[in-house]
Amino acid sequence: MQSSRRPFRPYLRTLSAISLALTLSAGASAQQTVNFWYHVDNAENTKIMDELVKNFETKNPNIKIKAENIPWNNYFDKLFISIAGGKAPDVAVTRLALQPQLLEMNAIEPITKQLATWPGKADLAPNLLDINKASDGEYYYMPLQYVAIYLYYRADLFAKYNLKPPATCEDFLEAAKKLTLPASANGGTELYGFGMRGGKGGHDNWGPFVLPQSSFTPGGMTSAKAVAANSWYIDLLRKHKVAPPSAPNDGFNEITSAFKSGRTAMIFHHIGSAKSMADALGDKVSAVPVPSCGGARWTYFGDESTTMFKSSKVKDAAWKWMSFLSEGDNNLRFNEATGQLTVTKSGSAKVPQPERFVKATMDSLAFAKPLPLVPQTADFVSSVWPTTMQRALNGEITSAQMMQEIDKHFNTK
Hints:
- By secondary structure, the protein is an alpha/beta fold.
- It has 19 helices and ten strands.
- α18 runs antiparallel to α19.
- The longest helix is centred in the first third of the chain and has 22 residues, at 8-29.
- The N and C termini lie far apart (88 Å).
């Protein structure tokens, strides 16, 4: 009986060896695919993403990144449609303003535990994680890039008239008055102290002057202090006339064009304009954080982060990709495609933007905040603020009436 079983032993050993080899081979070749959505304005910059993907996949051979550049015009529409249809990507670039809606949809996965042990956490710029924290105390967003609104000023004009960059609202008004000159007193070019943005997008120019003394909570916009701060801003045009008459309708293109051509001396924007400013004006332009008003400072924080979706079946791989994009030189390289600021302290010294603009951004982080993370904010930005601001600047409504409209928008159920 024993001799009859012996011949099978070599075959059993052979089958076991084959089985083990197949198992090891399958494990070695198993590959996870992370679907990643992002957007860049210039399609040429997708080459930067291709480079990052290649570097990541070289370091993580079992993970494949399928990166898709979605056109900006329909980026978020497509994202929300994909979520509703159960076909969300594993990771996508998104904005803080959308976090409440994504949480309400139960669409995104917390990364709090991963962040706690991530070595790159210590290199993140100050305050970024605090700004991104959700109302439930969890973290869902991995910082990817950011901007903070600051003050661009014509350094050549400030030097000519012996002025210092404004540190307070009072300084700002004094400088704006002194830098508002008729063409006859300014070499043939009419000059205004402030390039006011009254059209869409101007809420982040208005915010530094009004929001330190108001809030979006019930009654926060209609207090005497808040209404007075708003009146002060409106008076820059209506009473002091330190802004061009076109201000109620001026948008980004108008204010930057006037600034570069020497028709205005101060405007608000962020580091996304730094290159074009420096190309046009060289050392004639500089930047500082927004002035303090009423003893406090507020500036608009604009962001883009990566977030992971609950529907993902490759969450560990997705986290590796998210953290890779927010580390050191990787993040610096990514932001070369967008013109925004790296989220790392180590990378900030290597940003290919003039140091004075990088410093103005980083110095603003301590008091930079997003607008309220509530559904009403989208309509506030797109219609409520520009409509009421233009009417107030044209004298059609009072400061109090404008602030009542804003309070009503945020606090009427």
